Amino acid sequence: MGTYITFPELLLWLPLLGGIACFFMKDAKPVKAWSLIISLITLLVSVGSLLYADNSKYPTYNSVNYIWLKYLGNSFYLGLDGMGRILTFLIALGFPIIFLATYKNNYKSPSAFYGLMLLAQAGMMGVFISMDALLFYFFWELALIPVYFLCSRWGGERRIPATFKFFVYTFVGSLLMLVGIIYIYLHTNQRSFEDGTISAHSFALSSFYNASLSASDQNWLFWLFFAAFAVKMPVFPFHTWQPDTYDQAPTSVTMVLSGLMVKMGLFGVIRWLIPILPLATIKFTNIVMVLSIAGIIYASFLAMVQDNLKRLVAYSSIAHIGLMCAAIFAMNTLSVQGVMLQMFNHGINIIGLWIVIDIIEKQTGVKHISKLKGIANKAPVLTIMLLVIALANIALPLTNGFVGEFMMFGGLFSFNSWYAVAASLSIILAAVYTLRMIRNVFYGETNSLTENIKDISFNQQFVLGFIVLLIFILGVYPQPVIDLTKSAVTSLLKI
Amino acid sequence: MSNFVQLIWLIPILPLAGFLIIGLGRNHLSKQTSGLIGSTVILASFVVSVIIFLQVLHGQVFNPHYFNFISVDKFNIGFEFKIDQLSSFFLLIITGVGFLIHVYSTSYMHEEPAKNFAKYFSYLNLFVFSMLLLVMGGNYVIMFIGWEGVGLCSYLLIGYWFKNNDYTNAANKAFIMNRIGDVGFLLAVFWLMARIGTVNFDQVFTAANLAKLSTTDITGITMLFFLGATGKSAQIPLYTWLPDAMAGPTPVSALIHAATMVTAGIYMIARSNILYTMAPLTQSVIAIIGLATAILAATIALKQNDIKKVLAYSTVSQLGYMFLGLGVGAYTGAVFHVMTHAFFKALLFLGAGSVIHAMSGEQDMRNMGGLKKNMPITHITFLLGCLAIAGMPPFSGFFSKDEILAEAFAKNNLLWIVGVIGATLTAYYMFRLYAMTFLGKFRGTDAQAHHLHESPSAITIPLIILAILSVIGGWVGIPEVFVHGGHRLGDFLTPVFAQSAAIATAHPISHNTELMIMCVSVLISLIALIFAWKKFGNPDSYRDDKASEKETAIGNILQNKWYVDEIYNAVVLKPLHSISLFFNNIIEKKVIDGFVNGVGKAVNYGSRQMRWLQSGQVGAYVLWMVLGMLTLFIIQLFL
Amino acid sequence: MDIKYYITLSLTLFTIGIIGVLIRRNAIIVFMCIELMLNSVNLLMVAFSKMHAASGIVKSLPTYASDAQIFVFFIMVVAAAEVSVGLAIIVMLYRNTHSIDVNFLNRLKN
Q: How far is the CA of B474 from the CAs of A166, A424, B84, B486, in angstroms?
């Protein structure tokens, strides 16, 4: 129990309180500025947490544990480890980027919009730092609910059915997970607190790791948890909410969903599924692998025939996430390290892609590949930015995507070479759909929709330039990130 | 001596710096400046390469390691280079020929607006950077970085005139075909990682590590690497992108699609020679595919009328020869042919570019002819290039091609026979090209005739230099038959291939046999050459009326490139597209969404039915309540 | 007196209450019937309390005889409060709709 405030607390409270404060503001301008400032401060804190990453040197900075509902064996336990650090950094980085890139967008009732955005940020932060199952579930829902409102209120014209689908999918998943959490809770050992209270069971992560669960229990619990995480990621065949939602949600929310929120599913698998249910994991690894790899190929195929830019990116994201899921279950150092790196990279890259699509859609009013043409003639800077980001997305060397995918494929290959061969089909297909999109949208002569398109403004240039820079830095020198997550990976693989 | 290590990183960094400067400053730099920067960095890089090469010549080998690229657990990929005989030799070719082509480009591209001109040079510099990385890389991953990098630059430069849809299609095709090969390369790297746990060349090629590989492993790995090579070096089945890649500016075709990038596959296999020597099955496959490609491409080249297309197919064909060389274990011969080919093919492409320039963009040879008098320098240099590629002694192509053919003969006579047929075809179509372009009388429009002129010196000087190299370049590898110890290149490269030489079974052929087979191939080629010269050089023999031209059945097939593109389209692309549509329209929309929406609909329907219970009448509610209570009583009391 | 008489009386009152609620449409009558049901349950409770006290099952507790009686007083007090609120609602309904027919009061449905 720290006498001063710790990093995880700051990361949680800043957006939470900042978000609540947003609801009390009226005008668009101060709300925008306020949320941007809050997100920037959060980013600063997150950078600070990276600087003080050494848990052995600064033990008091990185975790906090208050007794909360002690008769339930629950405590307000937040902590940062390597994986949490890189993911909270991604969240903290993602939000200012999103706010900056969409700074000029106007929403009706902006205070509610930005408030909900910040609440979603707080929820995601909580998911990544909570070390207690009840807390985890609480934040999991806290992240979901603001997004639900954001989609249903500010989305496109078909937003209601899309949001409904999204909500039903994710909520069914969450509830299944809740059942699983309660079941495991009832099988945990008793826990004694410092003040002498003894609870019959415990929600603490470590107690969950030590819960006495028989092999048959693990089998069905596995699917309860996996359903929640698979929907979130999403893994084939739980994915159909994603293209609809990405298409219909306002772009900044789509960025949050695709760049940041899908990581919750991967994170959940790494922290809350595999270590708790190791026997079932081993048993079902092959099924999950086959699902993921089928999803990779399936989504790549679908991406090839999409006309809607947003749906194209959505399917491409499904393919990439599928690869990450497969790599997690390959369970070797190389692949899991690759996943850690790629979770970050994927977030950055896909946010970049959405920014570009948003710019195009705002200027031309369409998002259909068949209607756009020749943008490169009018907006060369935008084209170059997109080219870099898209190529990073298809893992060209010296971009960040390559390092992550290389490691994941390498790990997958040593787990089972045939899986890697099947998954590698997506490398080719990714090139096919990405280049097709670039050719149709950016190359060729301009048409009536695109001839008046303007090149990107300064703040967009700044944001995209920053993303491009990150892409190259992590593509050339990814080692710091690998080192950061090393301990988390080794502790995972010990199980 | 170790001071020279400090220079090595300059070689790739200079072009990268050029790329960044020109790329970022493209809106502000004038054409002269960007051309100057672009060429100077390559020249500087060339100078450094020469310095390093001289060190290597003295027996120095450099293995600088800069930082850990990916380091996980015990597995470590460094950002490291390997400068030995092989790579330093390639450095010279890349920077040397690269520099000449940069100089050439300053004049060739001068009609482009300044912005695009800068873009062009930045891409070109980026290409040289990637190519250098490929060659200098000290492990397979760094090599792969360059490997994909050159593919990217090739994509960017083929699609340089991006307003034209055909060009961008060609660019996409090139990138995707390369990517198919790249996947093979990557899988081979993973396989190595899984078995040996390292990708560093020096570590992989140690005996201890090689012993860890079973025969299956080695065959699989080499096959996958070769798949990578077929993509990059345009071999069957992935060769079709190269002819289409001629959509790019001509200097690009010369640099990327003739002299450097397409030889990456040969470099990679020569670098991994020990693996291939240990996998005889793969070697046979390489030899057969190389030869098949050589013949196939040569037959297609016979009937093409676009001057660049002919050269493109001839490149594919020559690359096939190099693979034949690799397949029969003639690593030195293959590398030798890479060098001579770089000289004469770059020369031919640049010459063709000079012609196209003079013809105001016309590429159809049926509209050329008689350019001999208007373009004397281009004509002479082009002729020298043709003689070199046709394998006429003492031009450079003769030495390298005959070294490969002699080794093929030693391995299997049949390979040699087919190889000679290919060489004959080469001589025929090259001189058909030469004759149609430079001999006879002019067949173009009057406007074009008016415009005909010799190109400026920025174009002709590289032509002259390359022509000289095409003539004398082969003299570094004179076979033992003529001069004892004449194969300087072979001696120089010995350390690189020493490991292979130790386990390969040599089939030496006697000097007499060697002389005999040389004479046969030269004679047959000479006959083909003269035949083509006579047939197409005669002003009257070529009919102006193109429409009346009747092609034989086989001629039609050749003109349509054996319909390979059409077959790929029908066998690969169409089915893929259909599968995608099937997934999209049936599985995604009907099955999965159908299921999900079905659940939703069922709930909806159920609730609509349940709604009738909520009549809003208090009495009804009370009735239900009482009935419920009664039911509970009954259950409680009687059941 | 035997407990079964009390039970019979209470059940009869309760049934009258239910039937009243089900078949009458006048809100005040319905309300009175509800009160009737409530009081029938009250009656039952007092009766049982008396019965248990007499049989001596719960003698160990000092307040055994008065527990339920006191409880019933509570219920009556709450019921009185409820009546006042309920009647007030009915009065307001009448003022707004000029009707106290419960079948007419189905606004919530839509």
A: 69, 42, 21, 11
Nearest to C21 among B614, B616, B622 (CB): B622
Assigned token pair, B320? 């096939």
In which element (H, E) is residue A403 found?
Answer: helix A400-415
Residues of A (54-93) whose Cβ lies below 8 Å from B? none
Tens-digit pLDDT profile for residues B163-175: 888 888 889 999 9
3 state SS of B440? coil
Which positions in chain B touch A164 (Cβ < 8 Å)?
600
Surface-to-core class of residue B423, CB atoms within 10 Å of its CB (0-12 exposed, 13-18 middle, 19+ buried): buried
Contact (CB<8Å) A443/B159: yes
| Band (B540; pLDDT cuts 50, 70, 90) | low
Give the Cα separation of C12 and C40 in Å (integer): 8
Banded pLDDT at B639 (limits 50, 70, 90):
confident
Average pLDDT on B606-631 reads 81
Model confidence at B46: pLDDT above 70: yes
Backbone angles phi, psi at A198, to 5 degrees: -120, 125
DSSP-derived 3-state class of residue A421: helix
DSSP 3-state assignment of B107?
helix
Q: Which residues contact C89 (CB under 8 A, 6 or more apart)?
A: none
Name the stretches of chain A with pLDDT < 50. Answer: 1-2
Rounded Cα distance, B64 and B67, in Å: 10
C25 touches chain B (CB under 8 A): yes
Q: What is the pLDDT of residue B545?
A: 46
Q: DSSP class of residue A461? A: H
pLDDT digits (tens, 9 = 90+) for B493-519: 888 888 888 887 766 778 888 888 888
Flag if B626 and C18 touch (Cβ within 8 Å): yes
> Among residues 40-69 of chain B, which lie with CB inside 8 Å of chain A?
67-69
The answer to whether residue A1 neighbours chain B at the CB level (below 8 Å) is no
Is B343 in contact with B469 (CB distance < 8 Å)? yes
Phi/psi zone of residue B440: left (φ > 0), alpha (ψ -120 to 50 degrees), beta?
Answer: left
Interface predicted TM-score of the whole assembly (ipTM), two decimals? 0.91
Q: What is the pTM of this model?
A: 0.86
Residues B281-335 pLDDT 10s: 999 999 999 999 999 999 998 888 888 999 999 999 999 999 999 999 889 999 9
Contacts of A413 in chain B (CB under 8 A): 187, 190-191, 193-194
What pLDDT sits at residue A367?
Answer: 86
**Residues 274-333, chain A, touching B (beta carbon < 8 A):** 298, 301-302, 304-306, 333
Strands A191-192 and A63-67: unpaired
User: Could C102 and B623 be called an inter-chain contact, meaning their C-beta atoms sit closer than 8 Å?
Assistant: no
